[in-house]
Every structure is written in C-alpha cells, then in structure tokens.
Amino acid sequence: MARITKISITLCALLFTLPYTPLTHASEHARPVAAQKAHVVKSTTKSTEKSSKSKTTTASKKSTASTKTTSKKKETTAAKSKTAKNASSAKTKNLAKNSRNKTSQLAKVQPVTFTEKCSKPRKGYKVHCVKVKSAQPTTIAAAHKVRVQKAQKTAMNKLMGQIGKPYRWGGTSPMTGFDCSGLVYYAYKDLVKFRIPRTANEMYHLRDASSVDRGELETGDLVFFRTQGRGTADHVGVYVGNGKFIQSPRSGQDIQITSLSEDYWQRHYVGAKRVMTPKTIR
User: Fold this and answer.
1) b/e burial code for range 199-238 (CB count within 10 A of at least 16 → b)
2) What distance in Å separates the CA atoms of residue 278 and residue 108, rounded to the nearest whole number?
3) Spatial CA neighbour of 215 closest among 119, 125, 117
4) Is 12 a catalytic residue?
5) Does 209 or 83 have the greater pLDDT score?
6) CA 199, CA 203: separation in Å to the nearest integer?
7) What does pTM read for this prediction?
8) 183 alpha carbon, distance to own chain's centre
C-alpha cells in the first residue's frame, strides 16, 4: 500500500513537471534575444543622439559663421560710410578755404590813389604841398569797390557837366543854376539811400556820412568851409582828386574847379565827409 502511494505521488509530480519544462526553456532562450533587442535600441538611440548633436553643432557653426559674416559686412559698410563722410567733409573744408583765400585776395586788390598833403604856412611864406600815397582806412571787397567807383563816376559826370554855369542862390536845377549846397544835392540825390539836406551846415552834421581826414580824401568826398561865420560850416564843395574840388562859389561867379591849397580855402577849411560807401549807395 505504501508502495502504491509513492508511485502515484511520483506520477502526479511528473504530470505537473512536464507541461512547465518547455516554457522554462523558452524563457531562457528568449532572454538573450530581448537583451540583443535592448542593445540594438540603445545603440540606435545613441546614434540618433549623436546625429542630432552633430546636426545641432553644424547648425550653430553655420549660424555663428553667418553672424560673423553679417557683422563683418556691417563693419565694412560703416567704415566705408565713415570714409565717405570724412572725404566729403575734407572736400567741403578745402572749398571753403579756397573761397576764403580768393575773397581775401580780391579784398587786397585796391587801386592806388594819391592825395596832396600841404604843410601849415608860416607867416610870410607860401603853402608847400606834396603828393603822397593815400592810406586806405578800411579794406572792402573788390565787388563793393567797383560799385562805389561806378557811383562816384556818375556823380563826377553830373558835376563836370555844370562847370561854367552861373551861381544862383537857392538854385538846384541845371536850367537855372546852383548855389553851393544845391550843386551837391543835384549830384547825389539819386545815388544814395538817405535824404541829402539842402544846406551846407546840415550836410556837415549828417549822421549817414562819415568824417574823413584831409590826408585821406577820395573823389566824391564833401569838403566844408566856414567863410561867413554862420554855423559850423556855410560853404560846401566836392573833392575831385589831385588836391582840387568843384564848387559854386558866390554871386557873380560860375561853377568852377578850385585848388584846396589856396590860402583862402586853407584858412576857412573845417572838415570833410564821405557819403559814397558800399552801405549808402543804391
């Protein structure tokens, strides 16, 4: 009986053991396959990571290179623009310097004029006069000088056309004749911007005219005298150069050119005024 029990137990054990043995072998066989698959997956993941890293590195290198190229281009453009600006500014400075040099050269070119300088006569001696080069009190541009000279020439032509006509008290017309201030009024009324007064004393105190020293007289300057003791000045003439002036002297005499060096005019001379300047002529 005991023997039968052992046999049955052994059979039962065999029955239970046989179905699970192939599964155990199968599981043992599947282990290396799974490990191999996991290794393949890991290697694939690593290669993917490497390729992505290489791609990222290449892209970053390309972006860095493009950034460097762009910055270099910008720097080159900025340098070119700066160079162009410096060149244009230098060109502008050179042009301005040349224009200033030309202007200064034109201003230096002035005609040389001579005046007659007379010494004060001693009692019993005649007046001694010497021609000297007149000093230019101010330097003006050549274009302005030409304008002044043209106006002076016009005034001189008008005055010279009246030589020989009789003195007329209060006269201001070539048809009737002139007194001293009427002759000056006729010559300058259309050439200057301000109003020319009608009497010699008013002309002498004219604010628009500048005082002139006797050694610096120019053609067209007004010369004043005090002959009758009325006011500061009661007689006026126009300087025509070479120590002479044109005037309408008094009743019974004609319009004439007289020398400033004569004793009578030397004693009664009071001063001179300049009405023809670049600022005053029309």
Assistant:
1) bbbebbeeeebbebebeebbbbbbbbbbbeeeeebbbbbb
2) 16
3) 117
4) no
5) 209
6) 6
7) 0.51
8) 44
The answer to the question of residue 60 being in a domain is no
How many domains, the chain? 1
Residue 143 lies in a domain: yes
Write down the catalytic residue from 105, 228, 235, 268. 235
Over range 166-183, report the average pLDDT. Answer: 89
Range of the domain at 243: 138-274
Q: Which residues are CB-neighbours of 7 under 8 A, at least 6 positions away?
A: none
| Cα gap 245→170, rounded to integer Å | 20
d(CA 198, CA 200): 7
CATH number of the domain within which 266 lies:
3.90.1720.10
Among residues 12, 29, 129, 180, the one annotated as catalytic is 180
- The sign one gets for the Cα dihedral 275, 210, 119, 123 is positive
Instruction: With respect to residue 158, please indicate whether it lies within any of the assigned structural domains.
Output: yes
- For 121-152, what is each residue's pLDDT tens digit? 666 677 777 777 665 554 557 778 888 889 88
The predicted pLDDT at position 180 comes to 92
Active site residue 235: yes
Q: How far is residue 106's CA from residue 48's CA, in Å, rounded to a whole number?
A: 86
Active site residue 247: yes
CB contact set of 28 (below 8 Å; sequence gap of 6+): none
- Tell me if 95 is assigned to some domain: no
